[in-house]
Design a protein that fits this description.
Oligomer: single chain
Low-confidence stretches: 249-257, 263-267, 765-781
Number of helices: 24
Helix content: 25-40%
Radius of gyration: 35 Å
Protein name: AAA family ATPase
InterPro entries: AAA_GajA/Old/RecF-like (IPR041685), Bact_Antivir_Def_Nuclease (IPR051396), P-loop_NTPase (IPR027417), TOPRIM_OLD (IPR034139)
Shape: globular
């Protein structure tokens, strides 16, 4: 048995999403504010509601007016002295819900007997809906109307007080502004939500399961006759543990007895976690067995010796007190005694130390220098803490050691769900990679686990780290993406993309992209936009062009990936599935004809391009004349269903240049980035001293002639020139910040900036005409 997928509805920005879970490890990736944390929080809210109670902000903002309207309808009925019909129907479209879909083998049906939808169900998909709904609508109505009446009475009292102060006024002034709780049903629930709402479970029908449509899940509607199954139907089925993102290392925190509490709540110091683990699994005073007799006898002997010493030490003090008349004949006499516990030895700041120097003594390495826990680096503390916490989760699930004696339930849940938020905090890149590769193995390191299919562990991790993402298979990645207001709802919401579906059956393409991204460590999964560049010169110079000339663009989350023109098109399935705004900066790669030799670009010469990106993706033509004459529309690909996603290609275009000594302008046809940069800054390169390509470019300008002649010299130099060395020479130059960005790159960057500004607002034009406060608040969420 394992969780196949979950569908979350009406929870924060997750209006209606489906998240497929891998059998072992699932990784949530995506840009900031894309919904990853909301999904993790929804799992905690629904599966551990006692430890993680709901808040009113968990309701999707676009549904807040509906909650307010329900309260208004109650008030209107009261004012008209009508009978209020208290039914759940008006609430159904706004209530947060989580549909949990399991895959159950026929031999496991007894484990889910309370969830079976029909008598003829024989295994396979099994769904249960967890919905956060009102406990008692009559009680909610009564208390809300009472609180509202009290608020109205206070307002009337304020008006009467002002009128009393101005008895002679025909029209007394309005009282000062006074906001009294509750102003609406939404305001009422914002303070008392948990008192009136609870999580209820309902059985779902596998036959009515529908696939997502237009990036949104389609949860099935419950029949009107559906009855709740209760709030604890998953209690013996799924064990949930989690490690939140906020861990506060180095700070002493109070202990926590709840063995399922998140890491931060249980004390973030390693000594706190060690003490908690000892109490649950090792403490000899809890259900002792013969192995514990030695430890218990040692504690008893130490306690007796300490009691004797304390009695001798306090004898003089007690004798002095008795001289004051107390205790009398009938008064109880004080005595000092101790109660020693083995765990007390861990209750101090130096319970955990780190050895920093050792010496050899009698054939063994003995520590001579130790530092306390707080003096160790945060990265090591975080790594050790998380690994130890995972061990504790595993052992608590398996009832290891003393936990088997103190736990009332002997049944081990068949599913263990572990949630970890942002494990990369404080960890350097290599440790991040090690952790994500080893975490699942730690959770399965028990003699009864391993490959045991009857006891399943599913690990869900949310991350912002490309190092973590690239160590995980594409099939385990779930990409969270923001959708703009007006696309599927009046406010921005999120959708989730299953990355296992990106490349289909093309294993070669997936293999290339996986290996390439792992080598490049690009932040494609976390960026707001991407720039794919042709070679090392563009990779070094384009970011500096952005810093020098495009300050607004420099403040955006953009990832730059170097990938040759012959391979950029292989990124197409990934980019289109991510819906990632992308600029591809590439080269014309002109040939004398189809299958011909490379040649300097020229119009009307029947030339073709050798660039696979231009031939097969954008603009999807190999004719050089057509490429040179292409407008912005031809260089851009958009999605009909996604107005914020687009891909634009930028390649060399004719440059109007005035050469030294020339009487008028001339037109140059650059072949690649380097000569395009030189033609746009001809005076700069005529005076630039350097080696390699820089020297050859300066010589080409000094030789004179028209643009075609100079271009031909540059073209010949580029055949064996070192482009990375060229870029470094240009970066070193004093006037670098004053360079003119090649026109084709400038046009591409300006297009990207325009698209990012539109994406930043995240509201479609039809919504921009009449913005309202609710939309503005949702955009800021």
């Amino acid at each position: 048995m394992h969780i196949k997928f979950i569908e979350i509805a009406n929870f924060r920005k997750l209006l209606s999403i489906r998240v497929d879970l891998a059998a072992a490890t699932t990784l949530f990736v995506g840009a900031n504010n894309s919904g990853k944390t909301s999904a993790m929080l929804a799992l905690r809210r629904f599966l551990s509601p006692r430890r993680c109670p709901f808040e009113m902000h968990d309701f999707t903002l676009c549904h807040w007016p509906a909650v307010i309207d329900i309260g208004k309808s109650w008030v209107a009925a009261r004012d008209q002295e009508e009978v209020v019909e208290l039914v759940i129907d008006p609430w159904l479209s706004v209530l947060p819900a989580l549909d949990l879909w399991l895959h159950v083998e026929p031999g496991e049906m007894h484990l889910v007997r309370d969830l079976i939808p029909t008598l003829d169900w024989e295994g396979g998909s099994l769904g249960v809906r967890l919905r956060y709904e009102p406990k008692d609508l009559k009680l909610l109505y009564k208390d809300f109307m009472g609180a509202l009446s009290d608020a109205e009475a206070m307002r009337m009292a304020a008006i009467a007080a002002v009128a009393a102060e101005h008895p002679d006024a025909d029209s007394p002034p309005a009282p000062p502004k006074l906001t009294i709780w509750p102003e609406s049903l939404l305001d009422f629930l914002s303070k008392r939500l948990s008192a009136y709402f609870t999580v209820q479970a309902y059985s779902l029908d596998p036959a009515k399961l529908m696939e997502p449509s237009k990036s949104q899940a389609q949860p099935q509607a419950l029949p009107p006759t559906s009855l709740p199954l209760g709030s604890d139907v998953l209690a013996g089925l799924i064990r949930v543990h989690d490690i939140p993102a906020q861990r506060g290392f180095g700070e002493e925190q109070p202990s926590q007895e709840d063995e399922d509490a998140p890491a931060a709540a249980a004390g973030s110091r390693l000594s706190d976690q060690l003490k908690s683990y000892y109490a649950k699994h090792l403490d000899p005073t809890k259900g002792p067995d013969p192995k514990d007799l030695g430890a218990l006898q040692a504690i008893e002997a130490a306690q007796d010796a300490f009691d004797k010493r304390l009695t001798e030490s306090f004898k003089a003090a007690f004798t002095e007190v008795e001289g004051m008349g107390y205790p009398g004949v009938t008064d109880p006499r004080p005595r000092v005694s101790t109660r020693l516990k083995a765990i007390d030895g861990l209750n101090h700041s130096a319970a955990i130390t780190f050895e920093v120097d050792v010496i050899a003594k009698d054939g063994e390495m003995m520590p001579i220098l130790r530092l306390p826990e707080a003096n160790n680096g945060l990265g090591y503390q975080n790594l050790i803490s998380m690994i130890f916490r995972l061990m504790s989760f595993r052992d608590a699930w398996m009832r290891v050691g003393k936990a088997s004696n103190t736990t009332s339930a002997v049944h081990t849940e068949p599913l263990h769900l572990v949630l970890i938020e942002e494990p990369e905090a404080h960890l350097h890149a290599q440790v991040q990679q090690v952790f994500i590769k080893k975490a699942y193995a730690v959770l399965r390191a028990h003699e009864d686990l391993g490959d045991n299919a009857k006891l399943r562990t599913q690990l869900v991790v949310s991350t912002h780290s490309s190092h973590v993402a690239h160590e995980t298979s594409f099939s385990c990645l779930r990409y969270f993406r923001r959708l703009p207001a007006g696309m599927v709802a009046k406010v921005p919401v999120s959708t989730v993309i299953n990355m296992s579906e990106v490349f289909g059956a093309n294993g070669e393409t997936e293999r290339f992209v996986t290996r390439y991204l792992r080598a490049q460590h690009a932040d494609l999964f976390f960026a707001d936009a991407a720039i794919l560049v042709e070679g090392p010169a563009e990779r070094m110079l384009v970011p500096n062009f952005i810093r020098a000339h495009y300050d607004e663009l420099n403040q955006c989350y953009i990832t730059l990936l170097e990938i040759g023109g012959s391979h950029a098109h292989r990124m197409r399935p990934l980019i289109e599935h991510l819906g990632l705004l992308t600029l591809v900066i590439t080269d014309l790669d002109s040939l004398t004809g189809t299958g011909g030799a490379s040649a300097q670009p020229a119009k009307g010469a029947g030339q073709k391009t050798n660039n696979a990106t231009l031939k097969t993706w954008i603009p999807a033509t190999d004719d050089i004349d057509a490429l040179i004459n292409a407008d912005d529309k031809a260089k851009t690909r958009r999605s009909d269903g996604d107005p914020l996603f687009a891909v634009r290609v930028a390649y060399q275009v004719p440059v109007v240049v005035t050469l030294p000594g020339a009487t008028g302008p001339d037109t140059a046809f650059p072949y690649t980035f380097e000569d395009a940069l030189a033609f746009e800054n001809i005076a700069f390169f005529a005076a630039l001293h350097g080696t390699g390509l820089v020297r050859k470019f300066r010589a080409a300008v000094d030789a004179g002639g028209d643009a075609a002649a100079i271009g031909s010299c540059m073209y010949q130099a580029l055949k064996d020139g070192k482009k990375a060395e060229f870029a470094l020479d240009v970066l070193e130059a004093e006037g670098f910040d004053n360079l003119v960005v090649p026109r084709y790159i400038a046009e591409g960057l300006e297009w990207l900036l325009t698209q990012l500004k539109k994406k930043q607002v995240e509201i479609l034009p039809i919504e921009l005409t009449e913005p309202n406060a609710l939309q503005t608040e949702q955009v800021a969420e």
